[in-house]
UniProtKB/TrEMBL annotation:
It comes from the Bacteria. This is HAD-IA family hydrolase. The keyword Metal-binding does not apply. Pfam families: Hydrolase. The lineage of its organism: Bacteria, Bacillati, Actinomycetota, Actinomycetes, Kitasatosporales. GO terms for molecular function: hydrolase activity. Keywords: Hydrolase.
């Protein structure tokens, strides 16, 4: 079995969450229509996830269509920037790095949220390589996303383990030759540690000092 040397993490659902969920975050503006609105705008957002066009004008138009008078910048800040870091996952990210593994980010984001994650959340300092779909020009679950991620990481695909909460994304990674498994932060830290162990990654203690195995 090829030894895993890098772990590529999805963001939403794995490293971070929207407190209360997306629907709850949108309810102050749309009430019971929040679900319908978000599913419409998520469909509108798809091209921008692959770096094609700007999502903000589309979101602004949808707000007008639904009769929302709050400025788009305010809605975007209060909903799309409403991100909570999952501390337990980041403890494992830190432990992996202390063990000598490469730790990387692989996420579908349009340019504005990607910029917020890079800067305000400091993700550029937390990961060795950050792969945002809007910058790669292709979004998960396309296998090309993972092929490009492996190129940026500078490692053979089979040495990279991808963790995501979407089965479709996991399948796409496997098509590209990566090891991949489905996991979300609701399953807990012990579940993730067990998953890593299945791929030959043993972390002696989390959190706390970890001796390198390389």
């Amino acid at each position: 079995m090829t030894r895993i040397q890098h772990v590529l993490f999805d963001a939403d659902g794995v490293l971070q969450s929207v407190p209360g969920g997306w629907y709850t975050a949108m309810e102050p503006y749309l009430g019971a229509r929040a679900r319908d609105f978000l599913h419409k705008t998520w469909k509108d957002e798809l091209p921008s996830l692959a770096g094609q066009g700007d999502y903000m004008p589309l979101l602004a138009a949808a707000l007008v269509e639904y009769g929302v008078t709050t400025p788009v910048e305010t809605v975007y800040r209060n909903v799309w920037h409403n991100i909570a870091i999952v501390a337990e996952t980041f403890e494992i990210v830190d432990a992996l790095r202390r063990c000598g593994y490469g730790v990387h980010l692989g996420t579908n984001q349009e340019q504005h949220r990607a910029r917020y994650m890079r800067t305000a959340l400091g993700y550029d300092d937390l990961f060795d390589v950050s792969c945002y779909s809007c910058e790669l020009g292709v979004a998960k679950p396309e296998a090309a996303f993972f092929t490009e991620a492996a190129r940026l990481i500078g490692a053979p695909p089979q040495t990279i383990l991808f963790i995501d909460d979407s089965a479709d994304n996991v399948d796409g990674a496997r098509v590209a030759g990566l090891a991949a498994d489905r996991w979300d932060h609701g399953q807990g830290q012990l579940s993730l540690l067990g998953l890593l162990a299945e791929h030959g990654i043993e972390l002696p203690s989390v959190p706390g000092p970890v001796e390198s195995q390389f």
